[in-house]
């Protein structure tokens, strides 16, 4: 099993694909699976066509990223196309994209079943699922996948993003492209895998229960307008009609996802805007009756968390592993908050991946498996998987 990455920052799509593919083919001629992350290139259909011409027998999954990507070769802002390829003679991989007018859960279930069919491993549980969906109902997609298998198959993923946060995200597989839908790759690798899903924020003593919600908008916290409560918590005035993404990036809302040794761990929701009726919209689905904690973080936290090892692989008993490669998902909101220092994030991530080839898009929502086994969707999170041999 071998994993290789390549990239191009050329501004013409045809030239960028040509350069990235040439670098890739210098080491890996026929990938089993090709992951594609792109930013500043708007024609996903053209990217798909060029790549399927080069790799007609390869399973492919592509997803647009917000203002750049990370790889083991560094941080590439703004316009870039990155490729992550695996060749695994004893493994199996499949990709599928469903973009219909059905509910997200139905699309996710169909995509997973089609992807498994593409591997030739029907009836066998995959080791992991990579999920890329258009923003909006990621929780529904995760729940449908879990129900399909009846057991928590690890999920890593990120919601499709775009350069200007204007809804121009794109997805594609070897078969077709879409702007709305659910895309997955299923993995049956011939190696070990380990996962990590973290926030890097700390809980404060401030909390309240969501007593009135509508969709992804909190209208009331403890029976008071959510805007008023959040203003008091962060000691900042909020105005209707203005984005609060940057302001709230260091002050998200957290919900308990589980407990380890009596200590809670949290999934985050990123406040996006203030509504005219005094509510706060989020990038995650919420439920009435949930308790929300004000979380706090610093730019240093957002940088240093990228260097945390994947699931403690450097602990006792794992000193002699052979790393093959990895995938990471880094929140676009966090990236925008620390963009001048993203070269440091790249260095930290490379250390966490033990110098193995990896790729990392910047997404509008992150999916991962917590240490307690829960697959969840959150915001301002970092999700990682490492492929290795003992």
Give your account of this protein's structure.
The chain is of the alpha+beta class and 390 residues long. It has helices at 13-25, 44-54, 104-119, 138-149, 226-234, 245-248, 299-304, 332-337, 342-352, and strands spanning 2-8, 33-39, 59-64, 68-71, 74-77, 80-87, 92-98, 128-133, 155-158, 171-173, 177-178, 182-188, 192-198, 202-214, 217-221, 224-225, 253-260, 263-269, 271-274, 280-282, 291-296, 322-331, 358-363, 366-369, 375-378, 382-389. It contains nine helices and 26 strands. The strands form four sheets. Strands 14, 15, 16, 17, 18, 19, 20 and 21 form an eight-stranded antiparallel β-sheet that branches. The protein has a six-stranded mixed β-sheet with strand order 1-6-2-3-10-11, with helices on one face. Helix 1 runs parallel beside helix 2 (44-54) and helix 3 packs across helix 4 (138-149). The longest helix is centred in the N-terminal third of the chain and has 16 residues, at 104-119. It is globular.
The fraction of residues assigned to DSSP E strands is 35-45%
If helices are DSSP runs of H or I spanning 4 or more residues, what is the number of helices? 9
According to DSSP, the number of beta strands is: 26
Q: State the secondary-structure class.
A: alpha+beta
Question: Termini distance?
Answer: 14 Å
Major sheet, described briefly? 8 strands, antiparallel
Residues in helices, as a percent range: 10-25%
Our Rg estimate from Cα atoms comes to 20 Å
Shape call:
globular
Mean pLDDT: 93
Contiguous low-pLDDT stretches (5 residues minimum) are none
């Amino acid at each position: 099993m071998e994993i290789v990455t390549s990239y191009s920052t050329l501004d013409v799509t045809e030239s960028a694909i040509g350069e990235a593919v040439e670098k890739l083919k210098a080491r890996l001629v026929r990938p089993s699976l090709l992951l594609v992350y792109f930013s500043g290139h708007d024609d996903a259909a053209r990217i798909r066509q060029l790549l399927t011409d080069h790799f007609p027998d390869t399973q492919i999954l592509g997803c647009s990223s917000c203002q750049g990507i990370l790889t083991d070769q560094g941080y590439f802002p703004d316009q870039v196309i990155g490729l992550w390829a695996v060749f695994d003679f004893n493994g199996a991989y499949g990709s599928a994209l469903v973009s219909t007018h059905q509910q997200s859960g139905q699309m996710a279930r169909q995509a997973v079943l089609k992807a498994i069919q593409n591997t030739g491993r029907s009836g066998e549980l995959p080791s992991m699922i990579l999920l890329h969906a258009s923003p909006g109902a990621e929780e529904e997609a995760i729940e449908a996948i879990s129900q399909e298998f009846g057991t928590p198959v690890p999920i890593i993923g990120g919601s499709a993003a775009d350069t200007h946060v204007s809804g121009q995200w794109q997805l594609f597989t070897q078969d077709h492209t879409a702007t709305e839908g659910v895309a997955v790759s299923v993995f049956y690798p011939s190696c070990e895998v380990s996962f990590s899903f973290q926030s890097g924020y700390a809980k404060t003593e401030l909390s309240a229960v969501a007593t009135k919600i509508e969709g992804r908008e909190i209208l009331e916290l403890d029976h008071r307008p959510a805007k008023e409560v959040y203003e008091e918590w962060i000691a900042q005035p909020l105005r209707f009609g203005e984005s609060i993404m940057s302001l709230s990036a260091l002050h998200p809302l957290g919900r308990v996802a589980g407990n380890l040794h009596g200590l809670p761990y949290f999934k985050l929701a990123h406040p996006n805007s203030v509504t005219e009726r005094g509510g706060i919209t989020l990038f995650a689905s919420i439920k009435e009756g949930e308790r929300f904690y004000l979380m706090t973080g610093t730019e240093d936290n957002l940088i240093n968390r990228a260097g945390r090892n994947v699931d403690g692989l450097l602990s006792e008993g794992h000193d002699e592993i052979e790393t093959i490669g990895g995938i990471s998902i880094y929140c676009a909101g966090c990236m925008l908050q620390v963009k001048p220092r993203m070269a440091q994030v790249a260095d930290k991530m490379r250390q966490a991946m033990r110098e193995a080839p990896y790729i990392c898009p910047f997404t509008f929502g992150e999916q991962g498996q917590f240490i307690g086994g829960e697959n969840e969707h959150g915001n301002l999170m970092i999700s990682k998987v490492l492929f290795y041999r003992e």
